[in-house]
Amino acid sequence: MCGSTGSRMGGLDFESIRHRVKLRRDTGEEQLYENRDDVSCPVCGTAFSEALATSERRCQLSPPAGVDICIVREEARTVVFTHAPADGH
Ligand SMILES: [Zn+2]
Question: Tens digit of pLDDT for each residue in 32-45?
Answer without folding.
Answer: 999 999 999 999 99
